[in-house]
Amino acid sequence: xxxxxxxxxxxxxxxxxxxxxxxxxxxxxxxxxxxxxxxxxxxxxxxxxxxxxxxxxxxxxxxxxxxxxxxxxxxxxxxxxxxxxxxxxxxxxxxxxxxxxxxxxxxxxxxxxxxxxxxxxxxxxxxxxxxxxxxxxxxxxxxxxxxxxxxxxxxxxxxxxxxxxxxxxxxxxxxxxxxxxxxxxxxxxxxxxxxxxxxxxxxxxxxxxxxxxxxxxxxxxxxxxxxxxxxxxxxxxxxxxxxxxxxxxxxxxxxxxxxxxxxxxxxxxxxxxxxxxxxxxxxxxxxxxxxxxxxxxxxxxxxxxxxxxxxxxxxxxxxxxxxxxxxxxxxxxxxxxxxx
Length: 340
What we know:
Elements: E1 2-9, E2 12-19, E3 23-28, H1 34-47, H2 54-65, E4 78-85, E5 88-97, E6 104-111, H3 118-123, E7 126-128, H4 132-140, H5 154-165, H6 169-180, E8 195-196, E9 199-200, H7 206-212, H8 215-223, E10 229-232, H9 240-260, E11 268-271, H10 275-286, E12 307-315, E13 318-325, H11 331-336
Parallel strand pairs: 3-11, 3-12, 7-10, 10-11
Antiparallel strand pairs: 1-2, 1-4, 4-5, 5-6, 8-9, 12-13
Helix pairs in contact: 4-5, 4-7, 6-8, 8-9, 9-10
């Protein structure tokens, strides 16, 4: 079980996020810290394979978030971040204000990740950022400005570039619903030349680029041996049909990975605002979705025990959370549905 504990960090007063099932859904209102959590995961996992170097770690945090002082919640003197796996602390970090000064400091008290197997598992973890469409377009346009990404985004960009150079089958697999629906012609793709189905990739629709950008998730779920795979805003630029299809397909891939990876199956963390995504996952959990666009068979359909929903919401100026088994529709979405 992978666990992230955060206290007085950004908008979050206190949160323990336990990832102990094949699929964890993170949803909630804007500004409550969902993307922030993924960026924290990325930075910690990125730094785990290396010996502790406070200066390098602080440099990554500053590049990612700004000065450590600005990460400490208003009214608090220090912030804490602890990452653990199966009860063993891998990283234990404190941000604190120096008394009498306005400066902030970063202190990594414990750093145990530089041992096997955590070194390999952390290095293979992939977190897909919400900027993924821009990254995908730049890669296929051979844009050197791709180097100007945040520290949390580098592992994702590196793997996606590798998949493109290899003409990986996962690039075709993730686009399969568009081929099935005749949104793309069934023409052989040459991703290393920037071509998909006879089109230059940079000229494809945002929906196709959004799907392409998720190929690293399928690759890791299939191969296994990672602490975490995650995607921020899975519904980004997808039509309602594709939102539903991709969420069900990813959930089934997560269950397949959980069942078939011999050791260290990677859990999937989905961040979403979409009621369509939540409704599709709920339907597959309760009844099963039978459609030609669902790529994996019924035996990989997740049940209520395989999914957990964590809802972030604002209360008295800070972010709090509720957790439940299965797929839950957040209160704020139920309230908005009255307008439809």
